Amino acid sequence: MIARADGEKLVFVASAQMGPKDERGIAMLYHFGERSAKGWAVRPALSMTSDDAVTDALSSAQANARPSQDLSTLGFSTNGVTLGPPNPVRGISQYISSGVGSERWISAPDPGMTPTTSPGAVLGGTPDFSTVYFLSAARLTQQDQTRSGDGLYQYREGVVRPAGVLPDGTVPTSGVLPAGYSTRSDIGNQLAQRNAVSRDGRRLFFTAAVGGVRQLYVREDGARTRLLSHALGAPTTPAAGGIVDPFDEPDLGVGRLAHGYAVATPDGSRVFFASNDALAAGAAAAPAGETNYYRADAATGTLTYLPGLRGPIVAIDDAGAQVLWMDVDGSSARRLMLSTFDGSGQGTSHMVAPSRPTVPQEIPWVGTTADGAVWTLGSRIPLDPAFPDTNGTGQVYRFTVDGGIPSTPRCLSCLAAVTYTSHANLTSFSAGTTENGDGESTKPVINHTVTQRSMSADGRRVFFDTRTALVPEDQNGLRDVYMWEAGRGVVLLSDGRTPKPSWFHDASESGDDVFIVTAAGLDQADRNQSYDVYDVRVGGGYATTPEPSCAGDGCQPPVEPRRPASTPRSDRPAEVVSGPSDLQPAPARVAVRRVRRDRTGATIRISTSAAGTVRVSGSRTVAMRRSAATRRSYTVKLRLRRPVRKLLARHGKVAVRVRVRFAPRSGKAVSATVKTTIKRAR
């Protein structure tokens, strides 16, 4: 899930029907949500087909999607399928979409060339995606037919052009990579982007191995390329030793997501990289085992040597004035450091935290305010001296910077006399893949390529989820969502009582809107016990809504709203994004599977969007009824009536039409019809 800076629009995934015009109810597909005076309105981001393979390929786990900054458009990849003409290839392709029926195939090859399928990912572009940059291993233009490695492309106004172009206008035959990637990066992971595409979409930073040596370049406005890793005093001469990825050394103390050749500021004005060569004034060739670090001005190509850096860069602030890095001194002594640099590269360095070599050295997530005054980290290194043992789990830390000097990090997710068994997470991109065997579901990875806001712009509020009960109201022993606020401490945002975990996903820039995913009925009308998206208005409570009228077999007694005592109520209530205001119980989704042929019937598979009752009936089949306590998928055997079985024996096949009626526990019953032909077994 991704929220726009003002908190008025979302991109998220859902596995239920979104609004009266959404007939699908298909698992984990992308939707747009936008707030209006009447509440939240939700619409699907992608079209749907009857092809189950397409459904699976467009699910959030496969599509590797990236939205535009204004959240008007979604960039995504298909996986082994085609969305139809003009793309004839059932393979991996890149698309953009602004809603149902608007999908555009952006990885289409030049006319006359044969479409091919290759891994790739949308990297970014202009705020509205009128220009899009993407990575693809396919060769899409006549200009890059001799390329053997990955390629970078620009899509604009229906035209695809190579974007990884050298200053002389050629495309490197060995391929190119986004500057935030290294040869160890995973395509599409979010930190590997490291601002390879600038916020305004005008600059693309990339690397290419030219003559067997990797160099750093910037492409501007899709029209010109500048060499950045150039020799001292020779802006058009590549550095003899090129650039290096400092994370290629074994276990340098940061998570695998941080591997990359370079990191740029969000506006694309500055980019940081490492080289063993002397490329700027004051630098000398790096001794064995050491590396030089440089800051490049993207507009001029001017390089500045940064003598205070002696280890891999973990993160930078928006201006590129402050750098968080790992000081590697020997095989195990790794200190987390913060350096502040002026325009000439002169600066000061201070230790944020000493090494703790006995615990996993991993910092999977870092965030900072634009001015670098406040930093938050998800770290497996215990950074707070008050909590020296976190049992190897990742916890949430915050520190401030005054005059270039960092304060001692404070653990926001820690509690005295607690044995930690799971991570606290600042983002929906989870650092771990399990919850250490505690039986809790793995946190859903909604988004792979965009950084969510885990901290308000002023740094006074930090949002995270954790399984540790930080307040008495958290009683379910499962993952819940918290806010830490300066001068106030931790506040529980989910209800802390529902028997299912809840997760933080994003927040508005001000932190006044916090978007969580929970199965708790925080709104009194939300009674389906399925996961919904809620907008928790900070400073508010949970809204109560008038009790709906109760009629019909599927009506259930009202559920009392659950409200944590630690969240004060006000006139700014939580709002349901994908809940009762726009969420209708999903219809039964029916797909015919010939699981087994025999003389008595066939087998169909039924998926329901919530708890309820399913009835299957038809003039030629025996009626049957199934009840489901939760949303589920299961198979149902269609048994032919005796006269129909005789017809099957006589004619060898018989047409069957069945009606599947799904009555959820709350909401309107819906139906689906299935037609199939049952053939006599041979």
TrEMBL record:
Comp. bias regions, Polar residues: 62-81
Region of interest: Disordered: 62-83, 543-585
Domain of life the protein comes from: Bacteria
The protein's name in its UniProt record: WD40-like Beta Propeller Repeat
Lineage: Bacteria, Bacillati, Actinomycetota, Thermoleophilia, Solirubrobacterales
